[in-house]
Amino acid sequence: MDWSFLRRELPYESGTLGAAERRDLTRRTRSDELLDGLQVWIDAAQGTQGRVRSLREAVLSVGRELASAP
Fold first, then answer.
1. Is residue 4 part of a domain?
2. Measured between alpha carbons, how far is 60 from 34 in angstroms, rounded to an integer?
3. Is residue 38 part of a domain?
């Protein structure tokens, strides 16, 4: 997804932040990146969980039909 339309000059880009502020901003930016990556993994795990549930229900349904067959 292209978010470039939201891009605006950040304080650290214009040179108005000190070294300590830049380090803090860099840490927060890295934390945000890690959290975004974690969210991707969580979304993938939830998708897998849904597929496993569907498969389990299908197996149980087949098992019930086989058990009730004459």
1. no
2. 39
3. yes
Q: Which residues of the chain have pLDDT under 70?
A: 1-17
Residue 23 placed within a domain: yes
Upper half-sphere CA count for residue 21 (Cβ side, 13 Å): 9
Instruction: Report the phi/psi class of residue 15: left, alpha or beta, with left for phi > 0 and alpha for psi in -120 to 50.
Output: left
Spatial separation of the C-alpha atoms in residues 16 and 23, rounded to whole Å? 13
Q: What angle do CA 16, 22, 25 make, to 5 degrees?
A: 115
Domain that holds residue 46: 9-68
Q: How many domains does the chain have?
A: 1
